[in-house]
Description:
single chain, 4-stranded parallel sheet, 12 helices
Amino acid sequence: MKNEKRSELSIGIFDSGVGGLTVVKEVVRLLPGERIIYLGDTARVPYGTKSSKTVVKYAQSNVRFLLSKGIKILVIACNTASAYSLDVLKETVEQPVIGVIEPGVKKALDTTRTGKIGVIGTPSTIKSNAYNTEIEKLDESAEVFSKACPLFVPLAEEGWHEGEIAHAVAEKYLDYFRNSDIDTLILGCTHYPLLKTTIQSVLGENITLVDSAEETAKAVMNMLENRDLLGNNNSVSVREFYLTDNSDSFLSIANRFLGKDIEDIQLIDIV
């Protein structure tokens, strides 16, 4: 397929649920004319409690669906799936594949002055050591401080990303970094950008926050540019949203994450 034909295909994005919509939001902001297909695997969420073998199996079934819709690039908008399935998918998928870990790590290493980098994420992401491994691979001299912040996800989904409750929870978690001398903090979960204001207020302005969703969107744009796959920005953009199970809360949460209403969500069965 020639590049001029391939460029009109969609950007395929999947996550275990709703968090990856922060990646969608940033991709739309940078590439407003691109077609996007988003798959939220709500039937099997959360991925964080599953084994690496199971997560890889889930990721592969998600990818089969996205490939059937016609995509030019695959984005794994889930930290757990990025940690466990990125290498496997890169070996088996013809299209370029981007996860959410490497873009955030590269930005953090470019940003830090002290070489001391903090990472916050879900327990499964922190336990996987995926960020530590990627940072050490690119810069062995960097020092990494990691902290699981499990309550940040429900706070984001409930819309309690600012206010007294969010601030108190952030104070409790982020006290871990008080004497670490970090100057950069990676938001290692796609839910966490919604809490950026609260996190920044607790840590202070001297610590730079790295938004993994924002950096992933930049990586997508760069990859499409480098491979001459950018779509026609004058075309009518198309957004398709698919779920693997009905979720009463997904629509309201999705609208909050995207900052706009989703008009149509389709349910699908995948194996």
